[in-house]
Amino acid sequence: MCEAADCIFCKIIKGEIPAAKVYEDDDILAFLDLGQVTEGHTLIIPKVHQKDIFTLDPKVAEKLFSKAPVIAQAIQKAFHPVGMNLLNNNSELAGQSVFHFHLHLIPRYGADDTFYFSFQSHMDEYSNEARAEIAQAIAKEIN
Question: Would you please indicate which residues are annotated as catalytic (active-site) residues?
Answer without folding.
Answer: 102
